[in-house]
Amino acid sequence: MATVDVHTHLLPPELPRWKEKFGYGGFIHLEACGPGRARMVRDDGTPFREVDSHLWDAEARLSECDAAGVDVQVLSTVPVMFSYWAKPRDGLELARYLNDHLAGVVRARPERFVGLGTLPMQEPPLAIAELERCVRQLGLAGVQIGSHVNDWNLSDPALFDVFAAAAELGAAIFVHPWDMMGEARMRKYWLPWLVGMPAEVSLAICSILFGGVLERLPTLRIAFAHGGGAFPGTFGRIAHGFEARPDLVAVDNAIHPRHYLGRFWVDSLVHDGEALRSILRLFGQAHVMLGSDYPFPLGEAHPGALIRSLSELPAKTRAALLGDNAWAWLGRKPVGG
Question: Which of 84, 207, 223, 305 is most buried when burial is the number of CB atoms within 10 A of its CB?
């Protein structure tokens, strides 16, 4: 069975200067800074991240995949590109640009890549239309969305129709943290990535569960990045809070959150053997999938190494974590499989 990395990011080699087109700022563009290197820069000149050609060069990333034993990458955009703060029609144009490029990369090597699109979630009707285009016209397996949409958590009724459309289309959803809470108080020590990201993922999971999204949409296939973030380590508190103060917690869904363990997926990106064992116990061995966050520094340098390091795992379980579970979440089989 093919080894599948469900958490990898892709950008086009060039990005339009959206500020010049739309007349306002906040967007990201790329500036070359050396052979095979570029800076992601906000259009006010603030640098966001330095990247190399593996972010846009499909053949370069495939050579690394071959060296790591990764057969298939699931591609999604860099979360900063969500741009949910943009005017809706502008957000749609940006999403279509990214989705068209990503779909082209997948079409060129369908045996090696699966694609997840991005949506203008700030305007749900536009998001649904682009979701339908992603699945029906571009052939993408689903979409990646953020852990919140501006002031909306994922439980907000405004977003439910997007999830319902994904369930109806059979589209997989991958939830990635972005625009981290409390970022203004976390300027030092890279804390938005070390503290804010895990909190954002837990916020997203709790919102989906407490908001009754999975209760109303039992066929929805949804996965969360970074091993579920802070959710596994605080699940005891979350469950106890539901039991102790249902008047505050169970206001939209009276079903205990434990009921939904095994109803959604997480990736394996936890960087620690005991943490991986913990999420396997909590979520179940059928609902954890290899995810590396390629090609970024907080990712797993050798995708799948942590899974393979757990020598006690039976071969069938290891195969599930490295590939089978991903195909179940994606709702498709490998090309030629």
Answer: 223
